[in-house]
Amino acid sequence: MTDDRWHEQTAAYALGALDDEERAAFEARLAQDPELRRAVAEYEAALADVAADLPGSGPPARLKDRVMARALEARPAAPSAASPSRPDQAPPRRWGGTVSWALLAASLAGLVWLGLANRDLSGRADALAAELDSVRTTLVGAQAELARFDSIAELLAGDDVRFATLTGEAQPTLRLVWNAERRMLLVAASGLTAPAAGRVYQLWGLGGDQAPVSLGTFSTDSGGTALVTLSPDLAPDFELSAITDEPEGGSPQPTTQPFLVGAWRSAQE
Amino acid sequence: MALVRSGRDPYDGRTGSVLPPGRSVRLPPPRISASLSDAELVLRVRGGDDRALSELYDRHAGLVFNLARAVVGTEADAEEVTEDVFVQLWTAADRFDPERGALRSWLATLTRSRALDRVRSRKRHQATLERAAATDDGGVAVALSEPAAADASALASEVRSVLDQALSMLNPDQRRAIELAYLGGLSQSEIAEHLSEPLGTVKTRIRDGMAHLRDSFKGGGGLLA
Description:
The complex is a heterodimer of chains A (269) and B (225). Chain A is an alpha+beta fold and 269 residues long. Helices cover 32% and strands 20% of the residues of chain A. Chain A has an 8-stranded antiparallel beta sheet with strand order 5-4-7-8-1-2-3-6, covered by helices on one side. In chain B, helix 1 packs across helix 2. Chain B is globular and about 50 Å long. At the A-B interface, helix 1, helix 3, helix 4, helix 7 and strand 5 of A face helix 2, helix 3, helix 4, helix 5 and helix 6 of B.
């Protein structure tokens, strides 16, 4: 066939209207003829445009789950590229470049958070009592009744309870107690101005070179005090935590500089 | 100032900002950037990145499904075709060659192909059932899986009407021939037979009509009035 004859068949091929024999011959030619391939691509693009105008509102939402499940069953995702379901699987990921965690980590080295007065206490009971004391200190000024601390005591009890104190340049401090067994993370804040309207504070877990993981959001009352429990369904294996100011509802990743940061430690340290 | 009342009740000093116990803070999988091109996403699909597949699904499932539905006539079959297409995209992404055209074109072509396969196999199945029913002595209760006739024909006329509009730059003969191929999967010979026209005439109508169609869409995409 002359070139013209091939090109005459291009449109019919794109439509799928060639007879079997013609199609086989055309496809053989296609493999060797870039011009012909370009011509086919143009027709296929036009047909795709026609398809885009067809009526319908697309598939039901539930179809996507089915499709993804079947696809992954047929061929699993690559481990390094797959969506992380746990923070320890998250690959290192840049996220906006507005915060330099490396700088922050370096500046943390100088922080004295490790030198909390409670560190030299031996015996867990003493350590717990001291933590309770520091929580109370944070809440000084509040009309707290001892009975209301029951749940806090409950929170502090446990084999794997972790504490953190978040500090920054300015006044406010945050004390965190995380009882992973009970899935309760207590945030005690004082002197923390309420976030602006439409904003919220978000607590992040950090470790290694992984992307920050949200532990939850909270706000403070007009007195700058907060005592909230978050319930992160995560293992408490973060080195640090930090607070950022985010839009209401929180953000998947921090969008502002953290202004309070601290390291986690267990009661035994 | 309210304090934590018990292990079960959350502090609620400011509504909406404290998660109740039992509610886990589970992040959705990070969304892959919506600014990546289709070709880049396909590369990631080849590398096994399911987020890329998810993004491609979000972008193109609408077109795939609507096209499948136009050809096969039912939502259920259209869902299956859509599934087949995206699973094939995931498992055989190397078959897509970005040099040979846009992913969207490739998906549209694959969708139509799968949809027509399904129509043909359904017709064969139907024919088999009808043959069985014809020779049936009443012992076999054959439930022909025919889509509700009224719904199917309502969809068909809606599709025809939209297609007529999309192909309005063509004359009726060209339009008819192209629609028969596009929606019905008929070959040129079959169209000629169906219309009782000479094969040469049909070939010319398809060639000229498609050239006209292509020229109308070039550089724009979508309907050009």
